[in-house]
Amino acid sequence: MTTATRRGQHIEEGPFGPEIVAEIADLPEATPVRLTKADAQAMAKSITTDEVRWLVDTYYQCQEFRKASGNQVRAATETAEPSSALLWTFDQFAQTEASIRRIMEEWTELSVIGVWLKSQVGIGPVLAAGLMATFDPKKPTVGHWWRFAGLDPTMTWNKGEKRPYSAKAKLLCWKIGDSFVKVSGRDNAFYGKVYRERKAFELKRDADGGHEFAANMTLASKNIQEPKTKATYESGHLPAGRLDLRARRYATKLFLAALHEVSYFVTYGEMPPKPYVIEHLGHADWMGVPNVDLIPGLRDAEIKAGVRLVD
User: Residue 27: how many CA atoms within 13 Å on its side-chain side?
Assistant: First the structure.
């Protein structure tokens, strides 16, 4: 891989060729320098939870702008040499994105909850920070979190009414589910495996006619115009995309249940008062908190509460 150096920065080739890397290295001095670890640590100690939420939002905005500017650079490369303005813009977004990620890495290291979150394959520092800054650990059950994130299927609201959930929390959970899908082929991806197994369950259930009621309810409540989709529902089945979303939501909800238990235990030193997941999803669905020993005392608390077998 081709690299270049600018003001102590190490620039890697990434999606571009060596000529583009060399040009980025020669950009004006106004280009932001990526934060050092010491800078990120100092910033992490002083930011508020509200600022973390804002930084997480900004990170994903920068990510989209970085992708868009990268596409512009690639398109320009096909016909001519991209201008320094295009390269400078791409580098601005790339460096800002990387710097925010580094701050979130250090901020999440300040809490055992953040360390536990990042131990879950598919959860990086930005997702971990977003979760810690979005969900209230003082809520007594994970059901509160599910409703807050729009993951409670019983929620309804009429046209013109304010939606009864947080759109940002719902988007965050969508990103988590998408991440679990991306890592689902890895042996050590606990929630990626949950997603795979649930996807297989949903597919078999649909093939056996187990979703006929849901299909009929959808036809009765929605005006579906697309012929192929409508035919699928009329046959008593759910579209493949909807089955996949069910599996994603299932994995995400189990993950949130584990995070809620961890957060509540760290906050109060005891298990949540209501084992919501066991009560509503069934004992067979609850596998206990993965990497539980990262949270001192939680394994014993789970065993005492009867939500984990002695292992």
Answer: 24
